[in-house]
């Protein structure tokens, strides 16, 4: 899995080419967070992302297929069920959404969590911790580098946290 680099102008960079993330695609990916679900069926995506407009609801099908082709959604066992991938989650991460890729019994991970937690509280940010050992792609990508920290969809750092730079990164979101 290649973690996407998300430009703040709403263009995703995929394989060195830009992909404009349209509003419907963003809405589909955000629906997973709004409903607090790991998987959603196509009916739920059409209802929540498509709204009451029949044409927009029909467009959800094509948008979901496109998101699956680029790796932001994957089918989840049953017919018409989708799971948002980590790439898909990062693609719609807000500027105050911080991801800490870690693993259990990792001293550096514990230190990073302790260092960023008070700063996140100060700025009203959200922390999502992801255990890389539960995802073979993440484990392969980061096994020697935890903790890895993303602010929004951009990698902030690995191994140690510079709290001054972390604070500055969050302050930039206020502007």
What's the layout of helices and strands?
Blueprint: E1 5-7, E2 11-14, E3 17-20, H1 23-35, E4 39-41, H2 42-50, H3 54-69, E5 73-75, E6 81-84, H4 86-91, E7 97-102, H5 107-123, E8 126-131, H6 136-142, E9 148-151, E10 154-158, H7 163-172
Helix pairs in contact: 1-2, 2-3, 5-7
Task: Summarize the structure in short.
The chain has 175 residues and is α+β, with helices and mostly antiparallel strands. Helix content is 45%, strand content 24%.
How would you portray this structure in words?
- By secondary structure, the protein is α+β, with helices and mostly antiparallel strands.
- The protein has two domains: 5-90, Arc Repressor Mutant, subunit A; 93-172, 3-Layer(aba) Sandwich (Glutaredoxin).
- Helix content is 45%, strand content 24%.
- β7 (97-102), α5 (107-123) and β8 (126-131) form a beta-alpha-beta unit.
- The longest helix has 17 residues, at 107-123.
- Residues 1-18 have low confidence and may be disordered.
């Amino acid at each position: 899995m290649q973690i996407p680099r998300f430009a703040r102008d709403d263009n995703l960079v995929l394989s060195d080419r830009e992909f404009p993330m349209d509003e419907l695609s963003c809405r589909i990916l955000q629906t997973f967070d709004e409903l607090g679900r790991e998987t959603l069926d196509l009916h739920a995506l059409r209802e929540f992302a498509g709204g009451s407009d029949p044409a927009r609801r029909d467009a959800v099908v094509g948008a979901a297929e496109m998101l699956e082709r680029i790796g932001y959604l994957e089918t989840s066992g049953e017919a018409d069920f989708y799971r948002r991938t980590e790439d898909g989650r990062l693609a719609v991460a807000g500027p105050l959404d911080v991801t800490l890729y870690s693993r259990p019994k990792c001293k550096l991970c514990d230190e990073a969590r302790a260092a960023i937690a008070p700063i996140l509280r100060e700025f009203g940010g959200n922390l999502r911790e992801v255990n890389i050992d539960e995802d073979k792609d993440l484990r392969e990508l980061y096994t020697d580098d935890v903790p890895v920290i993303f602010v929004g969809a951009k990698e902030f750092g690995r191994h140690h946290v510079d709290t001054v730079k972390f604070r500055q990164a969050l302050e930039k979101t206020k502007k």
